[in-house]
Write a structure and sequence with these properties.
Blueprint lengths: L4 H12 L15 E2 L2 E4 L2 E5 L2 E5 L2 E4 L5 H14 L1 H7 L13 H9 L16 H17 L8 E5 L3 H9 L33 E4 L4 E4 L34 E3 L5 E3 L15 E3 L8 E2 L3 E6 L1
Helix pairs in contact: 1-2, 2-3
Length: 294
Amino acid sequence: MRMDKRVFFLSLAMVGFLTFSFGKGGKKAKKEIGKFLYINGGALIDDETRVPINNFYIFKTEVTNLDYREFLYDLKKNHPEQYKTAIYDSTAWRNPGDSGYYEALEQLYFNHEAYENHPIINLTKQAAEMYCSWLEERLKEGYLKEADFTFKVRLPTQQEWMYAASGGFTLFQYAWGGYDLFDKKGRPKCVFSNYSANNISFNYDTKQYEIINKRNRVLGPVFQPAATANYKANGYGLFDVCGNVAEMVSDKNVAMGGHWMSLGGDVRIKSEMPYDGQPNKFVGFRPVLEIINQ
């Protein structure tokens, strides 16, 4: 895989902005640290059970291709023995019956500059955990070297993820607080498979369902993830927790929140899809920063 050197230095700027300090006395945490946003702890209402959640930080977007390319560049240079384990798997775009559109994405999605801000997908869960560990070490060696506390960067637990995804709207199904998938102008509030029944037709020759647009043109499965932060953030400032890509959690074999090919009822905060930890074009991740001791 060809790595663009400029990517490494551009993305390092994100780590450069990561500064952290506590005020005296109450040790008040900053609300924002680079891509990390502070989530004030509380209680998650899960099936009428109150689950206590501690304070933590979480990425405001899913990890992007640009973020991950920086990681791979550094890994290939300094830890080549780990590189193959962490590498992006472009072949995960392939499925029997997929259109040529996915063939193009197999070649372009991770490497082309047009997709730099799209969420990284097609990774193993182990690779995502390696990214979290790498980011933690980068912080410990750099801008958090003199911090008077210990911390860990990792994948969120399922309960942490749902708490953050709720944006403070604990009684609603979607991250924006409410039950509607479209705004007053009819625009979707997240990336999902938003075709209605009159856009779907069954082709008896191919024995497959097809998507038909208003001009009666067959579109086929021409979906893909959107760039991050294209839709309105939730109440905590997090983008794309519902739809776009489903997101890994640390403690369950599921990915949360639905993805770009999910139907509207499957992009809710509690929506789960089975996830076996292998590369998947529907699954990405966002790290949390846990303050362990301060």
